[in-house]
Amino acid sequence: MSGAAAAEQLIEVDGVEKVFSVRRKAGRLRRVRQEVRAVDGISFRVPRGEMVGYIGPNGAGKSTTIKMLTGILVPSGGRLRIAGIDPARERTRLARRIGVVFGQRTTLWWDLPLKDSYELVRRMYRVPDSTYRANLERCVELLDLGPLLTVPVRQLSLGQRMRGDIAAALLHDPEVLYLDEPTIGLDVISKAKVREFLREVNAERGTTVLLTTHDLTDIEQLCRRVMVIDHGRLVYDGGLDGLRAAGDGERTLVVDLARELPPIDGVPGARTVRVDGPRQWLAFPASQSAAPLVAAVAARYPLVDLSVREPDIETLIAELYANGGTRWDVAEDGGKAGDAL
């Protein structure tokens, strides 16, 4: 990797581990000490300006990773660098360059109006007045915070508080924004506002975003790249299309015929899964091209219209979690390599 390319890698994670020592019951009165490997040798790079989804089941190691990236936790092994800074050694210096939002914990002052919390953030980070005013004005406009600025944080709804937390994390112009479940518990309108705001921040300011969430719609709408972690190991790192190809999901060919007919059969590699009048749904492997199926149907049936639906990402993720014997990694050339765990 050239020097210029290396400089663009804002987040560098090499073989990072985190092991916790816990005491567990081993009988009525006896306790034994046991090691729990929350993060198990993960490695990845995130270039400047990229928005990456970091997903996994509960207990997979997502929040532990975020806490190590922010300097809250010290890795048990491996190497971490954020913009060339070691988070554990230079946490104060790093704090000026990152923003963090934990969906279930607020960084705002509970009894203060929202605007007073923002003023405290300005003083803590020593944000220049002109920068502060410009950033606050933009956040207030895009996140619809104007009517809330004089309201104590404790009186805000969950969706209002979450929007307030995201604004607070961006007032000092961080280079990296860590979002841990930022849309948890939000209604549809609040989620839409948060997503649109994050898209604009990433596109206009080039803010690097690492997003952990259980709402896979967040990932589909915001991220081109997704990393999947399970049992502390990185089991997939690549694009959403690659995730669909790597899984065992199926695509669906939706066919509109000129008239109602019996279920389509005799098309190699496809099976009819639903019939509703002249419309029929044919399932086929996600890795298979739709072109031969379309040609076969068009040659034998009075075809009026058709569309191809991609496999549901939630189903693919569930299959990936369940398939613990295989790991998909992105090779240096951008391809995927499968390893037995």
Automatic annotation (TrEMBL):
Residue span(s) of domain ABC transporter: 11-256
Biological processes annotated in GO: response to antibiotic
Primary enzyme class: hydrolase
Subcellular location: Cell membrane
Name of the gene: drrA_6
GO CC terms, sorted: plasma membrane
GO molecular-function terms, A-Z: ATP binding; ATP hydrolysis activity
InterPro entries hit by this protein: AAA+_ATPase, ABC_transporter-like_ATP-bd, ABC_transporter_ATP-binding, P-loop_NTPase
EC numbers: 3.6.3.-
Protein name according to UniProt: ATP-binding cassette domain-containing protein
Keywords: Antibiotic resistance, ATP-binding, Hydrolase, Nucleotide-binding, Transport
Topology versus the membrane: Peripheral membrane protein
